[in-house]
From TrEMBL:
InterPro entries cross-referenced by the UniProt entry: CBFA_NFYB_domain, Histone-fold, Ncb2
Record-stated family: Belongs to the NC2 beta/DR1 family.
Location of the Transcription factor CBF/NF-Y/archaeal histone domain: 12-75
Presence of keyword DNA-binding: no
Pfam families in UniProt: CBFD_NFYB_HMF (PF00808)
Name of this chain's protein: Protein Dr1
Lineage of the organism: Eukaryota, Metazoa, Chordata, Craniata, Vertebrata
GO term, biological process aspect, one: regulation of cell division
Gene behind the chain: Dr1
Major subcellular location class: nucleus
GO cellular component: ATAC complex; negative cofactor 2 complex
UniProtKB keywords: Nucleus
The keyword Transit peptide belongs to this UniProt entry's keyword annotation: no
GO molecular function: protein heterodimerization activity; RNA polymerase II general transcription initiation factor activity; TBP-class protein binding
Amino acid sequence: MASSSGNDDDLTIPRAAINKMIKETLPNVRVANDARELVVNCCTEFIHLISSEANEICNRSEKKTISPEHVIQALESLGFGSYISEVKEVLQECKTVALKRRKASSRLENLGIPEEELLRQQQELFAQVSE
């Protein structure tokens, strides 16, 4: 797949991901292969556009890491302000999932019991249940 910059042909969204999104969004519609290819190219171009703008915003604010706020500002400056509320919802969901993962991980670490011992205890409990 050729892209506008010419040297990043491998930087595209996986076709399987696009096919899944199309099937979930339009379950009763057949989509031609060239239309699917066009969707892949449009998605890739959109991501390049937003990331480039977010990178410029990041550089202007003298930061080295693009943050969600830079992406939101990029959406606004490129005229995609209507997406911002949904983007913020997804961002909040991601933060919630990440927090739950960290809490679950730290609970095990805070027990002070080695993983091997926890596995042994788990196997004992399974054995008791099956008796």
